[in-house]
Design brief:
Layout: E1 2-6, E2 12-17, E3 29-30, E4 35-36, H1 43-52, E5 76-79, E6 84-87, E7 98-99, E8 125-130, E9 135-140, E10 149-152, E11 156-158, H2 160-173, E12 180-187, E13 193-202, E14 206-207, E15 214-215, E16 221-227, E17 234-239, E18 250-251
Parallel strand pairs: 3-14, 4-11, 7-16, 15-18
Antiparallel strand pairs: 1-2, 5-6, 8-9, 10-17, 11-13, 12-13, 16-17
Length: 288
């Protein structure tokens, strides 16, 4: 799929190719990126809709397009072995907000080193029947370097009230729960962490290949918030270590907060990791 990219002068610069030709083995709508939930009249939805339709106006003016040191860059670096951009590997990388260059930036697409997620998921992934999890899962056909982008966890972006309603409904109907909650924090001057933004995505009805990636207490992938041209981040999955061909991909459903308490309705974890907690994280624990 192609989409036009406009420069700051309003003229078309180039075209970005979104490489996503994966299909669902299930009968749901396949989407290329997260979309807004169905419309409702609540104030929460109106606020979410306004954010969804907003643009990040901050732009770079890199004339050569390197962008590794521009106001957006710093989160990615080039991996010579894999010949691809990866998430920067350093102690500080986890604290670097990922803001990719976008359609307002003046940098050249063919030289920009700060565009990765916007091109879509990596190739050579496949949905398969996981014997470990007794469900569908995702594995890679080739080796993946640490820090490489896997795919977005795409689905419907929900309000907190709608997320709570769906969680209750899933429990009552004993349906599979796909709701994922991403909490972002910022540090105050006295080094306290305060919640800055909550992003909730549900791919149960509309989603992409990310919905099939299973949970593990010792995951080989991790999630990160990535913004391109919208204040609402994409929930993105990156390799947390070098991953071998034919290895199943997993991330911790608790995100960065992997020390979670067991809820009364938590499901049994099947990851078989040595440090397995024995139960799955419950999405309702991360919604306030």
């Amino acid at each position: 799929m192609c989409s036009s990219i406009l420069g700051s002068n309003g003229m078309a610069q180039s075209r970005i190719i979104v490489n996503d030709d994966y299909e669902h083995p299930d009968n749901i709508e396949y989407i290329l990126e997260s979309v807004l939930m169905p419309s409702e009249d609540s104030l929460d939805f109106i606020q979410l809709k306004n954010e969804y339709n907003s643009l990040i106006l901050h732009q770079c003016q890199c004339d050569k397009g390197d962008c590794s040191r521009c106001s957006h860059g710093g989160a990615y670096e080039y991996c010579p072995k894999g010949k691809e951009l990866i998430q920067r590997q350093s102690k500080e990388s986890c604290s670097i907000p990922i803001l990719e260059c976008n359609s307002l930036c003046d940098c050249r697409l063919d030289f920009c080193t700060n565009r990765l997620v916007q091109y879509g998921p990596r190739e050579n992934l496949e949905v398969f029947n996981s014997a470990t999890f007794k469900s569908k899962g995702v594995r890679t056909k080739v080796n993946i370097p640490c820090g490489a982008f896997i795919c977005e966890y795409a689905g419907e972006i929900l309000t907190i009230s709608e997320a709570k309603r769906r969680l209750v409904n899933n429990k009552e109907l004993e349906c599979m729960n796909y709701v994922l909650v991403l909490n972002e924090y910022t540090k105050t001057d006295d080094c306290r962490e305060e919640k800055r933004q909550v992003t909730i995505v549900d791919p149960s009805r509309r989603g992409n290949i990310g919905r099939y990636i299973n949970h593990s207490c010792e995951p080989n992938c991790q999630i990160a918030a990535v913004r391109i041209d919208c204040p609402i981040p994409k929930i993105c999955i990156f390799a947390a270590r070098n991953i071998h061909a034919h290895e199943e991909l997993c991330f911790h459903y608790g995100g960065e907060d992997q020390q979670v308490d067991q809820a009364s309705d938590s499901k049994t974890c099947l990851c078989t990791a040595d440090s397995c907690a024995g139960f799955m994280p419950n999405s309702s624990q991360f919604i306030e």
